[in-house]
Design a protein that fits this description.
Layout: E1 2-3, H1 16-20, H2 22-25, H3 32-43, E2 47-50, H4 58-63, E3 68-72, H5 75-86, H6 90-93, E4 96-100, E5 112-117, H7 128-140, E6 142-153, H8 157-160, E7 169-170, E8 174-175, E9 182-192, E10 197-207, E11 213-224, H9 228-237, E12 240-246, E13 258-265
Parallel strand pairs: 1-11, 2-3, 2-5, 3-4, 5-6
Antiparallel strand pairs: 6-13, 7-9, 8-9, 9-10, 10-11, 12-13
Length: about 270
Amino acid sequence: MDSNADSPEEGNEYDAALSAFYEPYFTGVEGDVAFYVAQAQAAGSPVLELGCGSGRILIPTAQAGVSITGLDRSAPMLAQARQRVAALSPETRRRIRLIQGDMRDFAIRRRFKLVTIPYRAFQHLLTPADQAQALLCIRDHLTKRGRLVFNLYDPSREFALGRATRAMQRDDDFIHPATGNRVVTWYRRQHEPVEQIMVQEFLFEEVDAGGSVLNRVYKTLTLRYTFRCEMQYLLELCGYTIEALHGDFHGGPYRGAEQVWVAQPA
């Protein structure tokens, strides 16, 4: 059976079909969980995580003793998070609040010592106007000495120049969390250098023990990449002071790959 699954919510690609594969396939960047948990512990409660998804970083943060609010546009992703939170201890559950909303335009009646946007979720904002709107909204929710911490990636030179459109390529397989079957994954990335847009196309093939394909799911994710100086200027334009730019989650220098930003309201 081939499927595009159910139609995604308007403006949100993380529908039920893609969300079902999120945990085993989208596993994060090396060191990111420990980094964001340490940032939350240093800041203290309360913390706001934007694009919290299924709680991959939110839950360890709460388990580390920090009160955290998670916001995400995707109802299926939040359903996964709520299911995981329900299995936690009562003490940890009391530290967690989950909200469906858009990082460009949300209103929470409190200010936060730390706002995080892990795992490149900021790149789902596809125009500079959307990015600026989100940064201004975030600034309104930070305490005077609060911090915004988030990460982006730089595309390779070939991708940025639009030279890297590829045929579907085999990626890592994983085990379907519901059925236990193997899922064979394929992907292709296409870039539009003028708008700095990357479209990722995925094919997930669920196969049985004999290798027969039981189901195929096609999905796409659209991201915008933002270059280092562009991001710095955007932060400053939106009223932030840059505290640090790291190149990884261990405090290493920026070398033109991962951008790990730490900023404060000016």
